[in-house]
Amino acid sequence: MALDHNKNSLDEIFAEIEEQRAFEYDTGECPALVPVYLSSTSGLSGMAEDEWADLEELLQAPSSDPRSDWERAVVCLTDHELFSEHGLHVDLTCQNWQPTKKQAAILIDFVEQRFSDWPKGDGTLAFAYRDARCILFQQKLWVYDRQRLAEEKSERPQAKVKKPKAFAQIDKALTGVKAHVDSLELDALIRRLCRSINFKTDLQALNYLVDRFVESKHVHLGKRDARKVVNRIVAEQASANRPKRGADTIPVVNEWSDHEMAEFAQDRLRDAVDANGDPVIYVFKGDVCDLHEGSRRMLSEAQFGTILDSNTLWLRRKGEDDKRIEFAPKQIVRHNYNRLDKEYAVLAEVKSSPFFASDGRRVDTAGYDKLSETFLDCELDVPPVSAEPSLTEVNEAKQLLIEEMMGDFPFEGVVDRQERMNRGLHNVSGSEPMPSIAHAVCMCIERSVRDLIVGPTPVYAPTKPAPGTGAGRLVGAITLAATGRKAAAEPMPTSDEEYAKVMGAHINHSSEFTFFDNMNAAISLGSFASNVSEGRVRTRLLGSSRMVEADVRHTWVAAANNIKGTSEILRRMVMIELDAKTPNPENRTGFRHPDLEAWTQENRPKLVWAILTLVQNWVAKGMKPWTGRPKASFEAWSRVMGGILRDAEIRGFLENEARLRSYGATGGDNGVEMFIQHLASTHVDGTLFRAGGTAEVRGRKGLAVFSIREELNVADDGKPLLLDGWGYNRDDGSYNHARGIVTAFRETARRAYEVTSFEGNQEVRYAISFMEAPDPQSQNQYFWEMSKHRID
Question: Which of 158, 458, 544, 756: disulfide with 662, CB 3.0–4.6 Å?
Fold first, then answer.
C-alpha cells in the first residue's frame, strides 16, 4: 500500500483509501468478497515467483490444520506487490474490507475448498471471511507502523557524538596549519602526534589522520601517498619510542610486531643458560634440541614452546595501566621453531667422559665446549693426568685396562692368564703379539680421541666359537668404563628399511656406541657397509619431515658366534677373537673380578685416567701418526690408533686381518662363498655330492656321497645357512627338498674358488672347484666331485 507520510492520523489515511476504491463486487453472492473468475494462472503474472510457489504448494498439499493453512495463505497475499500498489480497503471496524480482484479470486477459491466443511463448533464460512479481513488489516497496520516509526526516527534530532580524544588531537594539530607544508614539516607534524597517539593499535585514528590530510588544502597528497607517508613515519616512531632492549625488557604482545617478538624470542633463548651456565637450547642440523638424561633430544614444537615460556616473560595490555602476564604467542613459537636462521649453540655430540678435541686440547670440564660443539656430561673425580706421562704412569694405565679389566677374557684361545699378559701386556721377548688385546684397547680409547680422527672408524667385532665365552661381558665392561653406562645390545636389522630407523635413533640421541649382538646370520646389508666406510648416514630427524646427512660419530661394535659376512663387510671390521677352548665356557670359574660390572663402575675414575694417560702420552710425544700399513678406508683411524698403541708399546695392531678374512668369503656378495668355505673345511679332495640324497653313485663303489641339502642345513654353525633362491623353507626353517638346490648349485659349481683357513696359527689357502657329471641312477639329475688343492 502506498501511504502518504504527510498525513498524521489513521482517519486521514483511511479517508484516502475510500477515495481510491474503484472495484466491482457482487454483495449478493458474497457480501464481503468480490468474486472474480480467473480462467488460468496466467492472471497471476503480477505475483512474484516465490510467493505464487508458496500458494500453489499450499493449495495442492494442504496440511491437517486448516487454520494454519489459512494464515499462511493470507500472509503470502499480503507480501505480494499488489498489496502495496493497490491497497486493501477497510474501514475502522474491519467490516468493509476490499481486496484486489486477483487476491479475491485466490482467497475465494481457497476458502471454498478448505473451509466449507468446517465443523460448526470451529467456525463458519462467514467466520473465515471475517478472520481473513482481520488478518489482512492487521498486516496493513503493521506495515504502516513500521513506516511511521522509521519516519519518526529519521525526524528525531540526533544526539551530538563526541569525537574520540585522538580525533580531537588530530583536528587541533591541523587547525594550526595555515599555509602549504613541505615534507619536513609534515614529518614533524606526524611525529608529534605519535608521541600522544599509538597509531600502531588505534587504526581508526590512523585512518582519520590520512583522511584529514587528503581533505586539507595545505597538504597536497592523494590518499595513497598520504597513507604511505603516515605508515612509514608511524613505524619508525614506534620503534624509536620503544625502550632499549635490556635484561628487563618484556614484550607486550598486542603492541609489538610479530617480527620484533620473533627476534626477541630468539635473542632470549640464545642467551639463556641453566644453573651451570650452559645453554638451555641447542641446534643440530637446523633443528632445535636440548639435553635430556645425558642424550641429545630433538624437540617437538610443543616442547620448544615450553622451553621458550620457561625462559621468557610476555605481557598483554588490557587497559591504560593494566598489563597481564601470558605465554608466548603461538605464531611466535611456530615461527621460531621452523625458522632456518636459528642462532642457538650447535650440539654436534654429547660425551660422558673427558676427551681430546681436534686440536689436541684435553676437555675435562663438564658442560658445553663451544669450540668442539660438544657437551661433556661427566661429573667424575678423575685423578690428574700428567701433561707428559712417565713410563711408570703409562705402564700403570696399561695394567689397569689390560690386566685388571680385561685379564679374564680368553683372547685368541690363550687360556693361560699369564701367557696372555706376557704377550699382550709385558711384551716378553720371543712371544707373539696379541692383536685382539690391542683392538680391545682401541675400543676403550676411541671415544676420547674421536675428534682427532677425521673420517670413519671400523666396526669392532668380538667373535667367539660358542655362547658364554664373554663377548657381551667384554663389550659391557669397555662401554661402562668409557661412557659410564653399558651399551644397549640390539639385534642386527634384517632389512635396509629397519636399519635406517635404528640409525636414525642413534643419530638423534647422539649415541656413543652402537652395539649389534648375537648376529647369527651373515651380515650383508649394503647400507650398513656404506655407512661404516663413508662415515655418514642419511636419516630423518625425530619430529622433522626432512632428511639430513649426518656424520657417524658413534663407535661401532658387532659381536657374534664365529662372525660371518661378505668380504665387503668383513674388511670394515677389526677382530677381537675370544675362545675359551671348552664346550661349556659359561661354566668357567676363578675370575679375577667375579662381578666385573660392579668393579668397573667402582673404579671408573681410575679407568678413565688410564685411557686419558695413554692418549696424553701420544700427544706429549708430538702426536706422530702410525706409519704401518693402514686399514683400507680407515686411514685416519689407523694413523691415530696405531700411533697411540705404538707409543704405549702395545703390539699387534691390525695383525689379524688375514684371520678375519677366513671367517667369510673372498669377494662373495650373497653367502655362496661362505657355503664353499664350509664344504672345503669339512670335506677332503674327491668328495662326491648330490643335491638331495646320499646313495652311492653307480660306478663309484665305496665312495661316500654327501647331500648338499643336508650340508646347507648345518653350514651356519649347525644351523641352516640362508641363501636366496636355494629353496629355503621359512615355515619349517630348513631346506627340505632338492629342486631349488640343483639349479643353484649347478651354477655355483661352474666357477673356481679360493678359500683360506688356519692350521694352528698358520694361514693355508686352497683352490676349490667342482666337476659335474650326469647321475647314472636318475634322469636329468647330477652329482659333483670336489677338487681341493693347497696353494703354496
Answer: 756
